[in-house]
């Protein structure tokens, strides 16, 4: 399975912004007998400014789903999430807070 | 001639890849560690003090080790990063999340667990490290995925 599209939803909840993002990615381990292929870096931006930087391992499940929480926020804020994997493949998605 | 061309292409490749590598840091030493102690050392948290202000929400028993939902957060003021160490996994460090101004120290993610294990969460705050752990029982291991 190759890396594929992303889905994201950013909503205001309890005065904060909840960002739920899905990445289509095999996240294969060496134990699986397949080539090691996994996302290593995830970056979350709010209105163009980096708010979260994550380094992850092959221990994150296939087709990773993350929920992040940003302080405050407003309807229409731009949220961008991008990833980069160990083979240099990458993807990103942008959405407005609903 | 062919060799020289390859060398030039390889050199160009390195030049093109270098800026990307510099932008996206990945702690190879910590992620390559095979024991929880080495993983903690690799992220600079070998001396983490126990804390009750780190919250780990996870099932007590996970039927499928390939998808174990965990939700972690820190109530320690000034928390700037959280890391997850699944102690019995072949490579214990599962992730490190850095929260900058505007983000809350919170993340929910699904992880793989090879077997029943303590899951340790480290919080970084004010130049200090704190940690808490919680056991998650796994019925069917999930590292083959």
Q: Can you walk through the features of this model?
A:
The complex is a heterodimer of chains A (98) and B (145). The model of chain A has no long low-confidence stretch (mean pLDDT 95). Chain A has strands at 6-13, 16-23, 39-46, 49-56, 65-70, 78-85, 90-96. Chain A is an all-beta fold. Chain A contains no helices and 7 strands. Chain A has a single domain (6-96), classed as Sandwich (Immunoglobulin-like). Chain B is of the alpha+beta class and 145 residues long. Chain B has a single domain (2-140), classed as SoxY domain (Immunoglobulin-like, Sandwich), CATH 2.60.40. Chain B contains 3 helices and 9 strands, in the order H-H-H-E-E-E-E-E-E-E-E-E. Chain B has helices at residues 2-23, 28-32, 36-42; strands at residues 49-50, 54-57, 61-64, 68-74, 79-86, 93-99, 103-111, 117-125, 128-140. Chain B is globular and about 60 Å long. Classes of the chains: A mainly beta (98), B alpha+beta (145). At the A-B interface, strand 3, strand 4 and strand 5 of A face strand 6 and strand 7 of B. Strand 5 of chain A pairs antiparallel with strand 7 (103-111) of chain B, so a sheet runs across the interface.
């Amino acid at each position: 399975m190759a890396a594929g599209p992303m889905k994201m939803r950013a909503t205001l909840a309890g005065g904060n912004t909840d960002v739920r993002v899905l990445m289509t990615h095999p996240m294969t381990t060496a134990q699986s007998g397949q080539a090691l292929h996994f996302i290593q870096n995830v970056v979350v931006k709010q209105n163009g400014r980096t708010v979260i930087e994550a380094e992850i391992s092959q221990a994150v499940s296939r087709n990773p789903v993350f929920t992040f929480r940003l302080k405050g926020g407003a309807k229409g804020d731009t949220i961008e999430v991008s990833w980069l994997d160990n083979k240099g493949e990458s993807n990103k998605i942008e959405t407005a807070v609903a | 001639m062919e060799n020289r061309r390859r060398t030039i292409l390889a050199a160009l490749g390195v030049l093109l890849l270098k800026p990307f590598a510099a932008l996206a840091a990945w702690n190879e030493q910590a992620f390559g560690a095979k024991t929880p102690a080495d993983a903690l050392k690799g992220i600079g948290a070998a001396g983490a003090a126990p804390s009750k202000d780190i919250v780990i929400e996870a099932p007590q028993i996970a039927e499928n080790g390939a998808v174990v939902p965990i939700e972690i957060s820190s109530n320690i003021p000034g928390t700037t990063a959280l890391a997850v160490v699944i102690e019995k996994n072949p490579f214990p460090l599962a992730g490190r999340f850095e929260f900058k101004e505007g983000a809350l120290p919170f993340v929910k993610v699904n992880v793989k667990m090879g077997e029943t294990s303590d899951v340790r969460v480290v919080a970084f705050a004010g130049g200090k490290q704190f940690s808490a752990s919680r056991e998650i029982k796994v019925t069917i291991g999930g590292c083959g995925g």
